[in-house]
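Thread: quick sanity check before group meeting

JM: Hey all, I'm pulling together slides for Thursday and realized we never actually wrote out the predicted structure for the chain we discussed last week. Dropping the sequence here so it's in one place. If anyone has concerns about the input, flag it before I start.
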Amino acid sequence: MRHVAILVETSRAYGRGAIRGIARYNRERGHWSTWFTTQGLGEGPPPWLAHWKGDGIVARIQNLAMARAVARTGVPVVNLRGNLPELPFPFIGADNDAVARVAADHLLERGFRDIAFCGYPRRFHPGMYRRGETFRQLVVAAGRRGHAFEPPLEGQAGGWEREQERLARWLRSLPRPLAVFAANDDGGLQVLDACRRIGARVPDEVAVLGVDNDEYLCEFADPPLSSIDINSEQAGYEAAALLDRLMSGKPLPAQLPSIQPRGVVTRRSTDVLAVDDRQVVEAVRFVRENALRGIREKDVAAHVKSSATSLRLRVRRVLGRTIHQEIKRVQLVKAQALLSATDMPIKQVAHAAGFSTVQYLTRVFHAATGCTPAAFRRRRGL
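JM (edit): ok, ran it. Output follows.
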């Protein structure tokens, strides 16, 4: 039996999700003896590690002290934290380009013309920095106005109050309505606090989106914070699989997996449509509340007391897409969520998402994503 140390924090949602993924792999294939204790992100190496005799380690390595300690063990190590890219250990983490695309799609489809990124310096976390760079490129490519806030490095900010004052000044300088994509949920909470300081109403004047879907942080926020679920459980599962491979003496694969996000968990902070045409707003609201019932364009037109042709033209002019496309978009988002988070049979997924048949779901799904529902589910480890 192999002995594996799990050096992953239990204090944050990402770490807890990764631990669930590691545990799932161990139940299915590993059958390891695991050494695991509760800890926070960034803690130093545990004292027992210096004398531990094991076979492999999965860790979230936040600092050089932990990196040196796990290296001294001489066993294979898989890292689940990407803030120190120069480390010699293989890294499993989120596909930051995909995270950026999910964020951009979520905010663009709400009609915002001014969209900002609130992130961290490259030196703090290169992956989050790339997340922001890709996001800004997508915003500009969509013909919207992009803005960015990059706080100083830790130790240079002058404390919480000064950093929040700097963030508030930046937000006050930007046009509204405004959408802000924060690099993570911590940043999302800071943006929400800065909005309160300047009296900006969320989501009516400023919409805020985070990353990690840490339910404690997101529900603590006022209003509750929308956030991208980046599927840390799958990251933990893939890290465990890679460690098993290395402990068996096999080489690293030619390409390490990048974990695809599950999607946005929408809460109050982005529950808005930033357009002035009230009929279009009402039409889109009706679609989002009823698309899973299999409604058609004529049902939407009847609800807002408009002809289908007139409504189609107005929606396309304001949002750049048709009512039919909005219905299918809402249905696809639901189908993707069910495929990612449940083992519901695909026939039931089709029905729950408002599609009349599995074949129709498959055709629409493939046209939008380039893969079938079954292939989409396999990529997410279900």
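AS: nice. The domain at 96-231+264-270 is CATH 3.40.50.2300 (Rossmann fold). The chain is about 50% helix and 15% strand.
JM: adding both to the slides.
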